[in-house]
Request: fold
Amino acid sequence: MRVLLFDIDGTLVLSGGAGMRAMDDAFAEIYGIRGAAASVKPDGHTDPGIVIDMLAASLGRAPEAGEVERVIDRYLASLQAKLGTTHEVRVLPGVHTALESARRRGDVLGLATGNVERGARLKLTRAGLWDYFGFGGFAGADGDRVALTRRGVEAGFATAGRQLPVVVIGDTPRDVAAARGVGARVVAVATGRHSVAELRQTGADAVVETLERLDQALEQLDQALEQLG
Reply:
């Protein structure tokens, strides 16, 4: 048994840019500025971190108290509308097989995602995946990816009732760095914007083209640990 913590965007699903368009809508509604999201690279980022970067790029300042939360509230309303109408959520190759296989093994399945919890629920419910995950580490107001990953680890241990090996699965260098920040192993998957070659440069324990090869990657990690032991 192990705790598996999955990223969402680019790892489990693609939502056709709904998230960043919803962020842009929120910013335009509150500040009257359209196109602010274009200044931010979202890969591996957190929802609050994106807002912080948008404020810096467009208004040249840090957020005031409660400001990030205000933008996130408007973002979530826009995201819900987009996911319900104009944007499809596409489940990435191998996801269903990987999750079912992990469930049969008895692995403890959770999330470590830069989405705030309600955003994660909206996307994964739309994709039919939410019920696979009993817990998660979600983005906090500080936008700290290591901190949210640590929350996912702690929730995984609480769910399992004991400490278990932890593997983070994500599609960006930020996922790899966050896993390292909490002492977890990490499998990088090239279904987002980063290629296999780019992800190998991050020092991930394993890199796969799609989650169709997740089981083999996990088996290799286990074998490597046995050899070290």
In short: The two ends are 17 Å apart (CA to CA). The CA atoms of residues 81 and 93 lie 26 Å apart. The first strand starts at residue 3 and ends at 6. Residues 18-84 form one domain.
